[in-house]
Amino acid sequence: xxxxxxxxxxxxxxxxxxxxxxxxxxxxxxxxxxxxxxxxxxxxxxxxxxxxxxxxxxxxxxxxxxxxxxxxxxxxxxxxxxxxxxxxxxxxxxxxxxxxxxxxxxxxxxxxxxxxxxxxxxxxxxxxxxxxxxxxxxxxxxxxxxxxxxxxxxxxxxxxxxxxxxxxxxxxxxxxxxxxxxxxxxxxxxxxxxxxxxxxxxxxxxxxxxxxxxxxxxxxxxxxxxxxxxxxxxxxxxxxxxxxxxxxxxxxxxxxxxxxxxxxxxxxxxxxxxxxxxxxxxxxxxxxxxxxxxxxxxxxxxxxxxxxxxxxxxxxxxxxxxxxxxxxxxxxxxxxxxxxxxxxxxxxxxxxxxxxxxxxxxxxxxxxxxxxxxxxxxxxxxxxxxxxxxxxxxxxxxxxxxxxxxxxxxxxxxxxxxxxxxxxxxxxxxxxxxxxxxxxxxxxxxxxxxxxxxxxxxxxxxxxxxxxxxxxxxxxxxxxxxxxxxxxxxxxxxxxxxxxxxxxxxxxxxxxxx
Length: 514
Fold this sequence. Notes:
Blueprint: E1 14-15, H1 18-29, E2 37-40, H2 47-58, E3 62-66, H3 91-100, E4 105-106, E5 112-120, E6 126-134, E7 142-143, E8 149-151, E9 156-158, H4 161-170, H5 191-200, H6 207-213, E10 217-220, E11 223-226, H7 228-234, H8 238-243, E12 251-255, E13 274-276, H9 280-297, E14 299-300, E15 307-308, H10 314-327, E16 336-340, E17 344-350, H11 362-365, H12 372-378, H13 392-402, E18 409-413, E19 420-426, H14 432-444, E20 447-448, H15 449-456, H16 460-473, E21 477-478, E22 488-490, H17 495-501, H18 508-511
Parallel strand pairs: 1-5, 2-3, 12-16
Antiparallel strand pairs: 3-6, 4-7, 5-6, 8-9, 10-11, 12-13, 14-15, 16-17, 17-19, 18-19, 20-22, 21-22
Helix pairs in contact: 7-12, 9-10, 10-13, 15-16
């Protein structure tokens, strides 16, 4: 394998050998188009390819196989290899496409990954298929003169102006924290404001003078209005003030008996739900104290006398709550929810992961600030909760590992009325075998029963029970398979990569180094 050194220009190409490429191309030909995979031949017109690249960047990323025809164009009796036209079908067009991909987007795409694979083309001649991987972007991209696109199940769709605006908030390009709010300034002259001023040494606490200088107020239709961030920082009841604007800003804590929410006539709550309000510095402290108090009490299992002992590191609980408050999408009409079960704690924050964060890369990348204005001013209070400077999420993974617990699980729930991010902390000791299995999946892709037996020495039944247990715990998910014998499993945060590569079972990050 060889690579160039000018990756910054977006034109370098990684080359695979024929032996490396053969199996991958065979798998590529049996993988259907999807939200994260598309096939295109090279022509003199590149409009559809450029739209697809734009759509991938504005969605979850994707893989574009160039020089491969659509499966639907095959005729009866055609072999899958009949789809292999290769980039040699139009080499000048391919070179032109690569140049256009650097010029046709606003803002420019930050990086493209190219992988060239040798193969035997449909006419029996040697040629190449090129895979172009497009990363999920932390910005919203448009095609110059041709709109802004998003990816559907197996096609692209142009976004409306309202959808583009919504996507800019989802990605964190814009934040609701900077919206002016029709609230009287006097409602922010609170103990929180006075504490903030004392910490910063501000002698003049006049809100009408100080807030604009701090970037926390602006003139709107000739009236000075506080920004949403100012309400969150200083108002005694920001949630109540925001309710009239179709927004929320409170935290609700639910402590359940058992391992699931029972949707019966009588809910399986140990206590009535707790609603926590106040300026964010107080809200975070109150929520942390309440949840840690509930975890310290533990839980006696009914009829057994067995007492559940929660083993979470205190810093992990505090960081999960702090992140939920600081990084939530305040446009959305939903409170933060914290759910305590016998075997886990779930922290649900309204909104999706900002920027190009995914559940798969958040451990290494750390958090990306959605509400940087809020976070910056929160640090000016006495004993601020956000002092980790972007290292909080890696710290959570490290602390859970040191406690011999499973790593935090991040997942986005998009099927709900309001999209949410759920962080799950399992109160279960991580067996040594899981460390081996987790590492194997990270390096090789989905795992099967037979592969688990090779790693562990377990027999077929024991391996099946272990996989079923991990699925029940939520640390693994079963992938669709035609039979139980062909079942495979991956980690939830890697589902996007499985969808990206389908049955290819390889990650271009292992092939391409920036």
